[in-house]
Design a protein that fits this description.
single chain, alpha/beta, 10-stranded parallel sheet, 3 helices, 18% helix
Length: 468
């Protein structure tokens, strides 16, 4: 082989190697670019995942903060709810958020959407349209790093949460810490679908906080701050009393409503001037013995409905004040009384609410509390300045149907209502159950179907919980 031929072959081999090395270098560079791209993408995704997790924490905190304010919402005003939700972001270091409500829109970099009721997911959300829940969506525009090389400068991240304020599981409270007893049942039958709380701290055989004698007391929960005595009494298959519990906080579960109820009621000092039906208030004790229609207003001197009267209360709030010893509301036997969506604010300072076998056949008494507004679920509210005791007794056999809460924060009540209703609640200083008439014991039944109330039971839990 000639030297020139050998030289050409070596030159071709060297060129081929150089080409291979160049191709390998190009492939290596391309591989590095792709690898760096994946590393950059992983970095961006990691940052976004961390930011989304932070947003979820914010959404959870905002939803819980908003739900805590559900108690204070009126039908058309929940500003405290939205403010609390937005403040939750600020308290967690996220300032300058733009507030959106009820599934609105915004192009701001940081937004907090507060929906009550929830609406973001539409019909796919089990709580869609339910005002018992607060929905919060926190969204933030997050800048990208490596992805910006490819023109993706930012990504909108969001997190969603729902929370609610569960209804308190109890519906009967005696508030007197010194009651001896604070709650008692004699010779009767008590059955409740909801819990019972006796806040009396009294102890001792002769002065228990809770006393049951020759009866049946059946409830899913019986909590007593002091101790209890059961004398020939049984639980009917329900819970045994739990003694030595802590006093609930707040002690009065309806105290939060007092200011709004007083503000919503007709002024106690503005006595009505009508002297015939239909009444819009009255100045002086009003005694009704025939047919009459009453409208919301202030009734100074209270209202007494005599046997044989036929009285209709139109929907609204009735303020009852006392003149001397005359005051409150009294419905005597064999009276026909109806009122749907009514509430009675007994300002006093004298006179209670008295239904003593008020509607013996052929009478009929049917009163139902409002389903919304300041008195949602409240049928009777006696001002704390009025310490007059009350008697609320009725039965289906006596044609009595009272639906709503009986709230006597500084007064005793004798309560015995044996009739199927959606719900009934008693919050009073001391509570005595049971009533006997002509050797017949009137049983007491409590129910807890609050589906008709806009905001559910007025007795709320003390802490909101996440629902989603």
């Amino acid at each position: 082989m000639r030297p020139s031929t050998l030289m050409c072959e070596r030159t071709d081999e060297l060129s081929e190697r150089r080409r291979d090395d160049g191709q390998a270098l190009v492939l290596l560079v391309l591989g590095m670019v792709v690898l760096l791209g994946f590393v950059g993408l992983a970095f961006d995704l990691g940052v976004m995942r961390l930011q989304r997790r932070q947003l979820q924490v914010l959404a959870d905190a905002a939803a819980i903060a908003g739900a805590q304010e559900l108690t204070y919402c009126t039908t058309n005003n929940c500003s405290a709810l939205t403010t609390a939700a937005q403040n939750a972001l600020t308290e967690n270091g996220f300032t300058g958020s733009t507030l959106i409500t009820q599934c609105g829109s915004s192009t701001a970099n940081l937004t907090v959407m507060v929906n009550n009721p929830p609406c973001q997911l539409g019909a796919t959300d089990a709580h869609n349209g339910d005002k018992h829940y607060v929905e919060v969506v926190v969204a933030q525009k997050s800048p990208t790093y490596f992805a910006s090389i490819f023109g993706i400068k930012s990504e909108m991240l969001s997190a969603r949460a729902e929370a609610n304020l569960p209804g308190g599981s109890s519906c009967v409270f005696s508030l007197n810490p010194n009651g001896q007893p604070g709650m008692q049942l004699w010779f009767g039958d008590f059955t409740s679908q909801c819990g019972i709380v006796d806040e009396s701290q009294s102890t001792g055989f002769f002065s228990p906080a809770f006393l049951c004698v020759l009866g049946i007391f059946n409830a899913p929960y019986i909590g007593v701050v002091g101790d209890s005595d059961w004398i020939f009494c049984n639980n009917g298959g329900g819970a045994n009393p739990v003694t030595g519990i802590n006093t609930p906080s707040p002690a009065d579960p309806l105290a939060y409503l007092q200011s709004s109820m007083i503000s919503a009621a007709p002024s106690p000092s503005n006595c009505g001037t009508t002297n015939s039906s239909p009444y819009t208030g009255h100045n002086g004790a009003l005694t009704l013995s025939h047919s009459a229609t009453l409208n919301p207003g202030t009734y100074c001197g209270g209202i007494t409905i005599n046997p044989g009267a036929n009285v209709t209360f139109n929907p609204g709030i009735y303020t009852l004040t006392s003149i001397g010893s005359a005051g409150g509301l009294t419905i005597d036997p064999v009276a026909n009384v109806t009122g749907n969506g009514v509430a009675f604010y007994n300002h006093g300072p004298n006179g209670g609410i008295n239904f003593v076998f008020s509607s013996l056949t052929p009478g009929n008494v049917t009163l139902t509390a409002p389903t919304g507004g300041a008195y949602s679920g409240i049928l009777f509210f006696q001002d704390p300045i009025d310490t007059a005791s009350s008697v609320v007794v009725g039965a289906s056999s006596w044609n009595t149907k009272l639906t709503g809460a009986s709230y006597f924060p500084n007064a005793d009540v004798n309560f015995a209502l044996d009739v199927l209703v959606d719900y009934d609640i008693v919050v009073a200083k001391d509570v005595f159950y049971g009533f006997q008439y002509q050797s017949v014991n009137v049983s007491t039944h409590f129910y807890n179907n609050y589906s008709s109330l806009v905001n559910g039971t007025p007795i709320k839990a003390t802490a909101a919980t996440l629902a989603e």
